[in-house]
Amino acid sequence: MKTIHVLLMSGLFAVSAVTSVHAAGDIAKGESTFTAKGCIGCHGPAGDSQAPEMFPKLKGRDEAYILTQLTDFKSGKRVGTTMNPMASTLTEEDINNIAAYISSNK
Ligand code: HEC
Asked: How far does residue 34's CA lie from ligand 1's centre (Å)?
């Protein structure tokens, strides 16, 4: 019985480890998407906006904040004439990666 219990527990640990790897975005991919999609043009290198009164600084924001804002811009829950069309071109994976990238630049 004890062996079965141990096996079951290690199985669960393996599953949760895999899940958390997938949930976390890829920082390097996030960086290339941030450049390729032109985000950098308004929000500055690494999201460190040079004109924060017009284009909010993203640098310093945490992963969950960026993830939520981009998801809400994409769905239209958060309205922004510039950001709604920008976010609509991002996949969920892009959003995950960008959130990981931005939050990695402290
Ligand atoms: C043409 C300029 C422009 C481009 C390009 C642009 N943004 Fe934005 N972004 C804005 C503006 C302006 C706001 C503020 C919108 C508002 O509050 O309605 C904003 C807001 C945001 C916010 C929310 C910031 C906050 O403080 O709540 C995030 C996150 C964001 N942009 C990410 C991105 C990403 C990722 C890209 C590339 C896919 C991108 N932006 C491309 C102009 C731009």
From this structure: 11
Q: Determine the Cα–Cα distance for residues 6 and 72; give it in Å rounded to an integer.
A: 42
Q: Where are the domains of the chain?
A: 25-104
Q: Which CATH architecture has domain 25-104?
A: Orthogonal Bundle (1.10)
Q: Please give the distance, rounded to the nearest whole angstrom, from the Cα atom of residue 27 to the centre of ligand 1.
A: 19
pTM of the full predicted structure? Answer: 0.84
Instruction: List, for residues 2-57, the tens digit of each pLDDT value.
Output: 666 665 566 655 555 444 444 589 999 999 999 999 999 999 999 999 999 999 99
